[in-house]
Design brief:
The chain is an alpha+beta fold. The protein folds into two domains: 4-240, P-loop containing nucleotide triphosphate hydrolases (Rossmann fold, 3-Layer(aba) Sandwich), CATH 3.40.50.300; 246-376, OB fold (Dihydrolipoamide Acetyltransferase, E2P) (Beta Barrel), CATH 2.40.50. Helices cover 25% and strands 33% of the residues. It comes from Candidatus Accumulibacter phosphatis.
Length: 378
């Protein structure tokens, strides 16, 4: 089992900074997902781990060994690319065996490793086919199998599902999760721009925040367990990125402060948030945030007109007009009889309300409030 340590990692291409002072520890056997929008350095960070790029500053350690100067072949990592990177003129068996034959492993050992990978990834019957005879999902499984037979200490996945259709993405995602359970001793680092993949696969998410300007490189916005980022986002960027549909945001002003409670005025409508008032001041401009699944329809003192409805079958997305707010408030509802122009009562419970200050940093909760939030979806 291999622990990965990144200390002070920075990377630039020419005059363009990409990553800035990244400090990160990935536990042995952990499934760690790098997630973020395009252009935030996710794949670059993965390539640094693989040895395909060199850092401009900082140290990379795998299994207690400094690897900055080691070529990819000596790092004991295996990378799975979104393009599959299979040899088109070789059969599935030959693709899987090629690297092992290059290392001069005995034929019996090669066959044993391939048989294990075929069993894990259900590739029976495909060994004599060539890549052009396979579906996209089968090609991706072969690419993963080729990595498995190497028996690396670390698996690196670079957006492996991006070329698959929606149904295959779900199927392959489940297979990768099952693979991690089957190979529990191996660490896995996975890059995606899809926060649903990150939430469903990761033991721990590392959310990278993209360039804020030409002189600013990407950095870690927040790292932690998926539900920690969902329930306790460190800033507005994290809150907006994690969760589908995205969190609602409403500009407001602090009206009053109490013990573990903040009251805010949003264009004449008052909302309470169960948060620590520390550091806040009455009259301070803030942004309130609440997830669509936490907005309660049909109860509460507030009322709003329905401006749009999306009926999705199991759930409906209901958009509410709020005074002075250009973007409608989105709520999820199990009801399918809500119509445009209906006027609905709604509530935004204080225990699940978020508050962000002018710099985007989230206002902290007290211990009791955190337990209350964690219990909402429990």
């Amino acid at each position: 089992m291999s622990r990965i340590e990144l200390r002070g990692i920075s990377k630039r291409f020419g005059d363009t900074p990409v990553l800035n002072d990244i400090d990160l520890s990935i536990a042995a056997g952990e499934f760690c997902v790098f997630v973020g929008p395009s252009g935030c350095g996710k794949s670059t960070l993965l390539r640094l781990l693989a040895g395909l790029e060199d850092p401009c500053a900082g140290e990379i350690e795998i299994d207690g060994k400094l690897v900055n100067d080691l070529p990819p072949a000596q790092r004991n990592v295996a990378m799975v690319f979104q393009s599959y990177a299979l040899y088109p003129h070789m059969s599935v068996f030959q693709n899987m065996a090629f690297g092992l034959q290059h290392r001069k492993l005995p034929a019996g050992e090669i066959e044993r490793r391939i048989a294990d990978a075929v069993r894990i990834l259900q590739l029976d019957g495909l060994l004599q086919r060539r890549p052009k005879e396979l579906s996209g999902g089968q090609r991706q499984r072969v690419a993963i199998a080729r990595a498995i037979v190497r028996q690396p200490k670390v698996f690196l996945f670079d957006e492996p599902l991006s070329n698959l259709d929606a149904a295959l993405r779900v199927q392959t995602r489940l297979e990768i999760a099952r693979l991690h359970r089957a190979l529990g001793s191996a660490s896995m680092v996975y890059v995606t721009h899809d926060q649903v993949e990150a939430m469903t696969l990761a033991d721990r998410i590392v959310l990278l925040q993209p360039l804020a300007g030409k002189k600013d490189a990407a950095s870690v916005a927040q790292a932690g367990a998926p539900l920690a980022l969902y329930h306790h986002p460190a800033n507005r960027f994290v809150a907006a990125f994690i969760g589908s549909p995205a969190m609602n945001f409403v500009d407001a002003t602090v009206q009053s402060l109490g013990d573990g409670r903040v009251l805010a005025d949003a264009h004449g409508m008052l909302y309470a948030a169960q948060l620590s008032p520390q550091g806040l001041a009455v009259g301070e401009p803030v942004t309130l945030g609440i997830r669509p699944e936490h907005v309660l329809l049909g109860e509460g003192a507030q009322r709003a007109r329905v401006s749009h409805v999306e009926h999705l079958g199991e759930v409906s997305h209901v958009y509410l007009e709020l005074p002075g707010v250009s973007t409608p408030l989105l709520a999820k509802s199990a009801c399918d009889d809500i119509a445009i122009d209906d006027v609905l009562a709604f509530d935004m419970p204080a225990q699940v309300m978020h508050l962000f200050r002018a710099d985007g940093v989230a206002q902290a909760r007290g211990d009791a409030a955190e337990r209350s939030v964690d219990a909402v979806d429990g």
